[in-house]
Amino acid sequence: SRAALADESGSVLAFLPGQREIERTAERLAGKVGTDTDIVPLYGMLDGKAQDAAIKPQPAGRRKVVLATSIAETSITIDGVRVVIDSGLSRLPRYEPASGLTRLETVRVSKASADQRAGRAGRTQPGVAIRLWRAEQTAALPAFTPPEILEADLSGLLLDCAAFGVADPAGLAFLDPPPVPALNEARGLLRALDAIDDMGRLTDAGAAMRKLALPVRLAHMVAEAAGSGHAFEAAMLAVLLTERGLGGDGADLERRLMRFRGEKSPRATAAKQLAERLARQAGEAKGSEAAAAGPLLVHAWPDRVAKARGERGRFVLANGSGAMLDAADPLAGEPFLVVADLQGKAQNARITAAAAIGEDDVRAALADRIE
Predict the structure, then answer these.
(1) Which domain holds residue 189?
(2) How far apart are CA 316 and CA 324, in angstroms?
(3) What pLDDT shows up at residue 332?
(4) Model-level pTM?
């Protein structure tokens, strides 16, 4: 950006994959650009005032560096931009069957996106596009970004459809029809979480889940915890599971939750504020007392309760699959776990995120499912 500002006139629009990269870049540029240049972020989580600051024209004699996600690819025109700098990366939602959650993954942009980004330069005057990769690498980029509906977890879609009285979304006119196996999997999950009934209609539990901007498993956990006064702790756990790196990366979610409570970084502070908002949305006005992770998690992964079998660190899940932990892991000696994340093959998967739970808690939470 500094070189572009020195060599070219006008403002700069730099495409970066996400909020964290934008914040780090802004920190590195601070104090290293001219006094006539403002550094402004542009991403989806910003409030309207901050987004307006990135879009509106600069006063005469001033320039700006807009650090943006792919939100700036289409729809908006940023006046005064003559230079586009493209990192070639974007962050897209990817469904992870191992965890049952959708997380953002950093990927290479498609050719269509790269061309769209380049076209943001010189919308109102001649411009320059700088791509931060070798020209021959462009040929290896995918032609287009795949439609999200073909790769996404569809449980949120089905929940929304049920709220609008549509029991079977297969009858809707989609540009890209959702895959039938994914729809069936989503329907089975929502029934297991009591979010819809056998006719596909929204239940009271499903209505409570829809209030929360979380994957359905975690929304069910927070909504259930609100009934016992533990919505904030459940929301803290939900944020921990959706934001990689908070509280460390060990398998024991109880320990990670304890570390997360004590973290003071800006990212951790923002995550705790998000947990507070989620708890309020779930109907909890004040922060709750600490609660153990396992009895909370069982409402998100009732199908992932694991019972110890045979040698230390070996478990069998409620769905019949096998799973394992390193024998040296403190969780390896627990009689019961709730497993939030697995890696590897079904009969020999490695547990990467779990929490201990007592047999009494399992029976209390899943009494209607235990034979």
Answers:
(1) 153-210
(2) 8
(3) 93
(4) 0.73
